[in-house]
Write a sequence for this structure.
């Protein structure tokens, strides 16, 4: 039972270690994939935003160039000069209105001409009436972006100057930025939670912004804060004319990956972002499959560990048990030897009190003598050591007796002889 408990315990520990290593490897791979995905998608968002920036800049520049071409027309300058000189001249006013049709051919949705007193003289087309959804471009005088349900339009107001640089009137144009609108509205390519924002700070409150937000559910016009719970939002960086990528929370308090950049030389900031949840859905959607594979790998590993390690563990445990049993037997033998040694010592001590005992080398020289031997011989042990047994020869025994005695001693046998008690020093037997 001891072996069975321990071998299963070791196999379980090995299996748990294998499971831990597998899970740690899986988590490490997930983290690497997560970072790689963030980097790849972030770079993708940044590139997409750069493309939109170039498109928007070109559209705005085109609108400015077209409006500038209108205000610098010689016919318009001459007509306004004549009208300012003769305000009641119907012929001049008629010519201005008749030539407004040429502005429609230039791609303008609407246009109007004003005299030096800002009185409207003529108009072509209809201007957008959604005054709430307007992003003023403060860096450009009298220019703004307007959302009117389907399109983003660029409205530009520009003065008309005479040859001496004096203001003689003004022109206001509005042009639908169709490519701009298409790029702004088509957010499906980014993702289901993707949003594209165009924002401008308010004049009355620098911490507040107005934004056109394009999402999967359409375009919205909102007023937001540049700083959310003390943390700058991505659009705040864009309005500070910075460019980059950031992982943060947006105005909805949802974690996002956002690319931000200013819109050219305008005061507008742009943000293209995607929710982190959707970003990681590429990985999380496969988590069940990955978890299943990891579980199968762990089970297979545990079975392999059990099959390979369990026999070895059992042999090791059996060897340990044998060693323990041998140690127990050795301990018992040691205790028995100690008891035997004690008895033997007792017997020797008892014999030593009755018998004459001397120990010699092979040459017959005394090395040691017990107390009884010294008492009977009359010599001290120091006097006996190094001497031959002839020192105690009493002359009682024959020469053959001593020959046999020394032969016995030379063989290493025990020599026991009965002797008469010496009456005086030098008269003893050995």
């Amino acid at each position: 039972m001891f072996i069975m408990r321990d071998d299963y315990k070791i196999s379980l520990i090995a299996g748990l270690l294998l499971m831990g290593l597998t899970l740690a490897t899986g988590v490490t791979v997930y983290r690497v994939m997560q970072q790689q995905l963030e980097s790849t998608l972030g770079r993708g968002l940044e590139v997409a935003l750069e493309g939109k920036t170039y498109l928007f800049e070109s559209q705005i520049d085109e609108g400015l160039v077209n409006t500038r071409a209108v205000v610098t027309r010689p016919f318009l300058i001459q007509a306004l000069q004549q009208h300012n000189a003769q305000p009641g001249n119907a012929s001049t006013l008629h010519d201005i209105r008749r030539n407004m049709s040429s502005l429609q051919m230039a791609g303008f949705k609407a246009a109007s001409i004003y005299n030096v007193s800002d009185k409207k003289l003529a108009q072509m087309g209809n201007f957008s009436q959604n005054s709430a959804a307007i992003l003023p471009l403060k860096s450009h005088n009298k220019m703004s972006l307007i959302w009117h349900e389907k399109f983003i339009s660029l409205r530009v107001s520009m003065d008309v100057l005479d040859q001496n640089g004096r203001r003689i009137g003004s022109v206001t144009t509005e042009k639908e930025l169709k490519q701009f609108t298409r790029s702004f509205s088509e957010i499906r390519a980014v993702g289901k939670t993707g949003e594209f924002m165009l924002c401008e700070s308010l004049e009355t409150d620098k911490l507040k912004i107005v934004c056109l937000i394009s999402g999967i559910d359409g375009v919205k016009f909102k007023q937001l804060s540049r700083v959310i719970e003390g943390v700058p939002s991505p659009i705040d960086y864009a309005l500070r004319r910075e460019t980059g990528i950031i992982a943060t929370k947006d105005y909805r308090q949802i974690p996002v990956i956002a690319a931000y950049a200013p819109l050219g030389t305008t005061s507008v900031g742009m943000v293209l972002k995607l929710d982190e949840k959707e970003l990681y859905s590429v990985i999380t959607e496969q988590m069940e499959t990955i978890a299943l594979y990891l579980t199968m790998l762990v089970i297979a590993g545990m079975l392999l560990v059990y099959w390979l390690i369990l026999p070895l563990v059992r042999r090791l445990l059996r060897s340990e048990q044998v060693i323990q049993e041998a140690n127990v037997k050795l301990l018992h033998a040691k205790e028995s030897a100690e008891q035997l040694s004690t008895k033997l010592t007792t017997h020797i001590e008892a014999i030593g009190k009755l018998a004459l005992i001397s120990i010699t080398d092979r040459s017959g020289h005394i090395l040691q003598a017990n107390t009884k031997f010294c008492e009977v011989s009359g010599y001290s042990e120091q006097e006996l050591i190094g001497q031959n047994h002839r020192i105690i020869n009493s002359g009682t025994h024959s020469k053959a007796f001593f020959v046999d005695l020394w032969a016995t001693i030379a063989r290493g046998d025990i020599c026991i002889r009965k002797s008469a008690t010496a009456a005086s020093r030098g008269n003893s037997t050995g």
